[in-house]
Amino acid sequence: MVRKKTWCCLVVTALTAGVRDFIKSGIYDQVIIDSPEATNYKHWQNTYASDAPTLYIAAHFYNITNLEDVRNGALPIVKEVGPYVYWNKKDLIDIEWLEGGNKVKYNTMTRYVFLPELSVGPDTDVIVNTNPAYPGALSQAGGEGLLTVAITGPAIKLFFDFMWEVWIPDLVVQTEAGVLAKEQGKLTNGTNTLAFFDNWANQTKLISPEWTYMQVSLDAAAPRDALQSCNATLARRYGHEVHHYLAPGSERALLAWYKRARDGLVVPSLLQQWDVAELNDLAYLQWGTAQVTGGVSVTTLYPGTQFPASSELGVFWGINPAARIPANASKQLLNGPVGLFSALNLAVFIQATVNPINYNDTYVRETWGVGRGQADAFYVYFLYMLAEFSPKVMADAIAKGGGLFTTRTVDEWLMENTDPLLALLSPEQPDASILGNETTPEKARKRHGPDVVFTGKDDINQVQVYTQWFGQTVIEDVYAEPIPVQGVNDLGFFRPFLDLDSELWSWDSNYVRNMHLVPLGYMDHKGVNTIRYTLANETWAINATLYQTIQGFCNLTGFHNGTSLMLSNPHMYLADPKYTSLIEGQVPDPAADITRIDVEPNTGNVVWYDESVQINIYLDPSKTYFQMTTYNPDVRLDVIYPVVYIHMYAGLTEANADQVKDSLYLGFKAEVIIFWVLVGLGGFLLLLSLPSFFVLLLCLKADRRGSYFEFTRTGDGDLAYNPLINDTDE
């Protein structure tokens, strides 16, 4: 009997353990993404698979309604405008599996699709607020008073852009007549026009294969030289008559042929004439020596341009040969590795050249290609351009929206916008949009580096934990001390088997740090049991390491070129009242103004995601570059301006919930059912064994009395027993 009980217990234990292993294996199968064949690979690789929950981004802007008063020292009054809702579509690209699938490397391409049906208005709605790029520009320049100094190098480049785009192409056209006439002489055939044309076409075909089978005929009544006739056709702005006729569809081929033929004849002639390596080098030669125009400024050839009369250094210094700078040296000075087209390099040049004590001739020549006299000549010319041109450039940038306050459409604020001032100071990164729409893989690769995460294959507790974020393993030179990249990524996966004692850490790309998540309690989503998490209170606390000096605000100034960018809860909820009281128009909602993440505890999958982050600009009086005495002298400092809060949310669909209940929960139900079935089976076997147990009990009792019993069969075939008394005396 004991063996039967033991057998039943073993069966119950084994089957229950088997079911648990089956469930555990199923959870691992759902969570671990270690190859393209993994069960949830498509949901991991992109966020918009057919049965995936939609990830929404809703922008709520703060529109300043009293801008002129704010310019004159008043506090801002804002009106909340929104939501403007977008579908957030993420693709993981350039996927590379590492260490046999234990790690994976990828880049993230993030796109946004505007959803007008869910929005309060079109994405062309106009919003007025502080310009996030402007504090960054002040940080680069050192203050408003130095902005015009900082943009002088970029202003000089504007003149070069004009020479490259207008003057040099015109110079090529002006050079064509002589060069083409010279080539014409090589082809002359006096017999008749057609014979000449055949000869010319055959010769030019060698220069430009696009000419093949071109159907062109000359007007015999008004014969023209073939090359010059072609030139006239393509230069209608000079008022030339057309003296040959193109067959239908031939014009495009003629344009392609003409460019090849011209570049093959005219451009080499110009390069040889002025001894430069490429066509654009003519601009450096003209700027440094004014030789190309014979000492006359290019600006005199184009009346009405915005450029000063002596925009070239060679024209500014006239015939002074000591001040001239050859083409190669001009190119190195302005556009070399430490070229002065860049605002960031000006301070380096001034420090190296202006102070005679620090002057190092070898270093200056190697770095900028100029000697002492040429460096001094440039500095004087620079002061001339600073006085005559930079203020115009600065005024134009502010007028186009590059000042402290700006007016932009919703799409420009969020998706793509080239800030006019930022385009001058940081032309390699002129985009001032808040989100940035990565519509191509190339854009994504340009904006950030790749990520590397654990897949959980070797350790389930490391599932989707970063080892590298945007190409970095440690965040350096931003906070008071280096911050290692760690924590789970933002793709909706945590480690499995959680309970209310489980705290989580997630690396957040908005806050650029490892965020602490604490459990609040159990929640139900469409029949799926979850644990609700929220950001720990320490997120908003004053923190010297993170340069957080104001309660309720996360300081991200170091990540945005000096822009004093502060993140907070929407409506500055839980922030220092000293600053929240300065803004009229924010209405906090404690129930909605916090981040909530609901996680299915068995798998660690996020089933409800509700994060909101507000972007604010702080006019920090402790920063010397915020002494805005030039363009915004009356604007009040020590004010944190709310710009926009972004609400990111996604949740289980009915189909997702049914899938969880049908797979995961079915397994747990099966475990419980099997357990009780086996318990019931054990009870049934126990009942069957009761008669034998009763007989055994009687035998033991009779033995103790010194008697025994025997079984006999009755008349109807049933068994009966008869006790037999042992008469033997002890």
TrEMBL record:
| Taxonomic superkingdom | Eukaryota
In the record, biological process GO terms are:
phagocytosis, engulfment
Q: What is its main location?
A: membrane
Keywords assigned: Glycoprotein, Membrane, Signal, Transmembrane, Transmembrane helix
Spell out the subcellular localization from the entry. Membrane
Q: Where are the transmembrane segments?
A: 673-700
Would you indicate the residue range of the signal peptide? 1-18
Q: Any keyword Manganese?
A: no
Its GO CC terms are:
phagocytic vesicle; vesicle membrane
**Keyword Transmembrane listed:** yes
- Molecular function per GO: scavenger receptor activity
Belongs to which family? Answer: Belongs to the CD36 family.
The protein here is known as CD36 family protein
Provenance organism: Acanthamoeba castellanii (strain ATCC 30010 / Neff)
